[in-house]
Design goal:
Layout lengths: L8 H12 L3 H13 L4 H13 L1 H4 L1 H18 L12 H6 L5 H15 L1
Helix pairs in contact: 1-3, 2-3, 3-5, 5-7
Length: about 120
């Protein structure tokens, strides 16, 4: 498991707010930045927020796939990040009934592994 700097809830909230308000060009730049550095947690948080709040703009299937990808990444790589229990995290997807059974199983297995 990779080690990341501990983020405060205030930092996560700031990144989520920035992500919700992204326009097309900054969104594309963040997507590109993530390709060159997939371990960039702040970028993932901003993208998670954008896809959570702007799903209809991206297309619901695209937005859901992106949200699941980022949440599973956090569960696997940075499980202590305060974004996970946040309203943008796995709980919201699960409550919305949008996690496929396969993704739900992955999320549960990753969460169980973190508790060990």
């Amino acid at each position: 498991m990779l080690l990341f700097a501990v983020m405060t809830l205030a930092e996560v909230d700031r990144l989520l707010e920035q992500g919700r308000n992204l326009s097309a060009n900054p969104l594309q730049r963040l997507e590109q930045r993530l390709k060159t550095n997939p371990d960039d947690a702040p970028v993932r948080i901003q993208l998670l927020a954008w896809y959570t709040e702007n799903g209809s703009t991206a297309g619901e299937a695209t937005a859901l796939a992106a949200r699941v990808e980022h949440i599973l990444w956090f569960l696997q790589n940075d499980a202590g990040n305060p974004v996970l229990p946040h309203k943008s995290g796995v709980g919201r997807l699960d409550c919305e009934g949008k996690l496929s059974s396969t993704d739900h199983e992955k999320a549960c297995a990753l969460q169980a592994r973190q508790r060990k």
